[in-house]
Specification:
The structure is a homodimer. By secondary structure, chain A is of the alpha/beta class. Chain A has 2 domains: about 220 residues, Glutaconate Coenzyme A-transferase (3-Layer(aba) Sandwich); about 220 residues, Glutaconate Coenzyme A-transferase, CATH 3.40.1080.10. In chain A, about 35% of the residues lie in helices and about 20% in strands. In chain A, helix 15 runs antiparallel to helix 16. The model of chain A has no long low-confidence stretch (mean pLDDT about 95). At the A-B interface, strand 4, helix 13, strand 18, strand 19 and helix 14 of A face strand 4, helix 13, strand 18, strand 19 and helix 14 of B.
Chain lengths: ~500, ~500
């Protein structure tokens, strides 16, 4: 047995994933570890999927409600969704199989702000939590549990669940111990207190999860890597978008609205955020900090280069090479990286206090600055709102970034009216595409529309957008936010009918 | 001269409103006091309007950008808008003349969360503030300024403006001194610190505004009442809605999800909030608290009855009788009421920490729980988002309340898709109409739709809503949030064409 389980009592609970899966009942509510493909349980979910499939073959009803930190991996969402095993999913997902089952109506999906899900579990709004299933890198002799490459909602799940299942994964570095900061100051109102973070590097909790031993029903030993996907090389559009954002920051510094070393950066996952981090790497900025959800490759480069002093997040999202580097050098990186519960990494109170610089991707924005982050053509769920609302509503600067078109130009990211709203006109400060940047601060809707169309829309769509706006302005009796309700979705309807938004 | 101006140096600056208005230039950015028709300057704005009108008659350009706490009164918004004197208005208004000028395109209107406007002024996002024009009940010998019936953004305006004009109004009670709590702990990031409020009754600031004397350019003596409008008697629908809300709270208490004396109440302005307060008055609850924007009559009754220990707000919105009572008994009420800057009364950090019970009005909600608080038929601005976003996103319970129909049944408050989104599906927990209540916590969109239609829509509209939802569910290929984009606004388009949403 692995020497990573140092507690005697807990060593007695080691069993196979199949045996652990046999403990689960139809309708169980399970809080899984896992955030952006890191630190999720890897062998229990496939075993549970096998059990569910067998039940279905016997004609029995068997689904579970699956809660996580955020997105997981094929071994979790893919396996469970693949056997039609998920009744309700929350708060975030990005797996192709899970997404298909949500969109074909097999599974329900409650799309919740990532800072709020754990809080709502604490408040009892999702009912009783039957199981917590989490991953650990080791269990100390005292029975303390050291998390792995994500913290997510592990702490609240362990606290609230009736029963706990732990996967101890020796692929994860033991040197991660000391990187985590598990805050235990949560209370329910009227007893909540201020969260004592005033700098991204502040540590306010413990380096381990408190796990009541009497609730632990199974421990599974695993040896499997996280879902680490290689990053694509940064494309030209992403470089352009990153350039506009960094120029905007530089201009804010020049006008005295921001300190020289900026403010704590929020950095999403993907090509554009990676290009921003790359841009920072090649800038003359230093003593940067980050307060964000996820540590990706570019942030590791910035730490290596001595440009980022400290980065606070709740999870890694690394390529295989960088995950290897992290595992080899965790003892170094834990001096510069803090992994926190997502209730803290995404907490409005802290984001607003620190003055985080938010930059989030989007599916589409409309000419007045409303943003759709979740639904293609208004109905089809992509991933979920994630932390974009937590950061956007509370950031010092709230920017949205996207290429101006998708599907080879057939979809415009700037539309007359978004087909779903995740971020309102009240929250969007800046929109950036490879075409340019629209600074919307202090502007009314009629001031925003021409700016967004001219600066951000692709030239192929500008005339149609101007035409819509001009006629709305002329024909609409009320001109705060001129819209023609019979045409507001003409772009989307054309795409659904003809496969392109272009006329 | 009034003995309310005890400071010698400032007594030298007393002048007429006309003389003060002559100090203002075209294009000036002015931060006015005033919140829900309380504590706004009363004689300066009409004098400024006269000056602007005279300039216009001479063919000169003259507008000002008018910022406030929230809504003001005919003397301010009405007068200035009436002479086409406002270029940009922010962050909230409700005056009929102002509203008309926004909707006919004369004035721009930037509709900003009430907690954020002062912060954005501090951050420099609205440019330089030329003037602060505020109301005081008195000025002490030391030159400290005691606010009146609202605090709003007075502190930030006085701090950031180049020049300050003060109206000293002897209609306001001198006993208001001690009721205000002006927080001076604001800083810009990276130097922001936790706001040290853990109970609605906590006092964290000073009882007066710090006013740099060298910036004061005029003092005007006034004697005018606030815009206090009588409340209408509570109608039956409001009683019903209040009943559903209070039953919901009682059920939460019963299930252990809320303390017996509830959590701090947010209470909007108007008929339904008044009915809720009336319901509380006739309940057996006590030791209630409130953390809200506005103190209205019902809250005063609850304090008189000994049921509310303390109410925190940023302004009064009282009927004439209750305003009289407040002025007569301010020395008593200041033991139970705290008036704070709206940056604090509406701060997400404090609202989330305290676990405020939010209940806000709406124009319409859709079958998936998105809420429109601002735009009639998608284009016509009513008042603004106000504090509804601050409270809804951060409250322990986020409820929206409205009669199920408006305009004698011609408008349904429940529609297939809202024509403007101020609060997203991610934020709405409960919807209540006189028809009933839909508890949406933990539900996916397809679980919400039937519940909202059956529980909240008026019977006259239920069949049409079900028909839309059933066909969307059947015909839409992607079923997370089924919508038919060519029909989503059929209700609204019918109203615009025929004057009723009914087929």
């Amino acid at each position: 047995m692995s020497d990573r389980i140092a507690n005697e009592a807990l060593r007695q609970k080691v069993m196979s994933a199949d045996d652990a899966a046999s403990l689960i009942h139809d309708g169980a509510q399970i809080g899984f570890g896992g955030f952006t493909g890191s630190g999720y349980p890897k062998e229990f979910p496939p075993a549970l999927a096998k059990r569910i499939k067998a039940a279905h073959e016997k004609g029995e009803h068997f689904t579970v409600n699956a809660f996580t930190g955020a997105s997981t991996a094929p071994e979790l969402d893919g396996e469970l969704a693949g056997v039609d095993g998920i009744g309700l999913r929350s708060p975030y997902q990005s797996d192709p199989v899970m997404r298909a089952k949500i969109n074909d109506g097999t599974s329900y999906y409650a799309d919740i702000h990532l800072s709020q899900f754990g809080m709502q579990i604490r408040q009892g709004f999702f009912g009783n939590l039957d199981f917590a299933v989490i991953e650990a890198t080791k269990i100390t002799a005292d029975g303390n549990v050291i998390p792995t490459s994500s913290v997510g909602n592990n702490a609240v799940y362990v606290e609230k669940a009736d029963k706990i299942i732990i996967e101890v994964n020796d692929w994860q570095s033991e040197d991660l111990e000391g990187m985590h900061d598990i805050y235990y100051g949560f209370a329910l109102p009227p007893n909540r207190v201020p969260i004592p973070i005033t700098h991204p590097g502040d540590r306010i909790g413990e380096t381990y999860l408190r796990v009541p031993q009497n609730k632990v029903v199974a421990i599974i030993e695993t040896h499997d890597p996280d879902r680490n996907s290689p990053f694509k090389p940064i494309d030209e559009d992403s470089h352009k978008i990153a350039g506009y954002l960094l120029d905007f920051y530089a201009n804010e510094v020049e006008h005295g609205r921001m300190p020289k070393n900026l403010l704590p950066l929020q950095s999403g996952v993907g090509n554009i955020p990676n290009a921003v981090l790359d841009g920072l790497l090649h800038s003359d900025l230093d003593h940067l900090t980050s307060y964000t959800e996820v540590i990706q490759d570019g942030m590791v480069d910035l730490i290596d280069a001595g440009k980022v002093d400290v980065a606070s997040a709740t999870a890694f999202s690394l390529s295989p090479d960088y995950a290897h580097k992290m595992n080899e050098n965790a003892a170094f990186y834990r001096n510069h990286i803090i992994l926190r519960p997502q209730e803290i990494s995404n907490h409005p109170e802290v984001i607003r206090r620190l003055g985080v610089l938010g930059a989030n991707g989007m599916i589409e924005a409309d000419i007045y600055g409303n943003v759709n982050s979740t639904h293609v053509m208004g109905s089809r769920m992509m991933n979920g709102v994630g932390g974009s609302g937590d950061f956007t509503r509370n950031a010092f600067i709230s920017a949205f970034v996207s290429p101006s078109t998708a599907k080879g130009g057939k979809i415009s990211a700037i539309v007359p009216m978004v087909s779903h709203v995740d971020h309102t006109e009240h929250d969007t400060m800046v929109i950036i595409t490879e075409q340019g940047i629209a600074d919307l601060r202090g502007l009314a809707p009629r001031q925003r529309a021409p700016k967004i169309i001219d600066n951000c829309a692709h030239p192929d769509y500008r005339a149609a957008l101007h035409d819509y706006y001009d006629r709305a302005l002329r024909d609409c009796k009320f001109k705060q936010t001129p819209h023609l309700l019979d045409e507001a979705y003409a772009f989307h309807r054309r795409f659904l009918e003809t496969g392109t938004m272009q006329a």
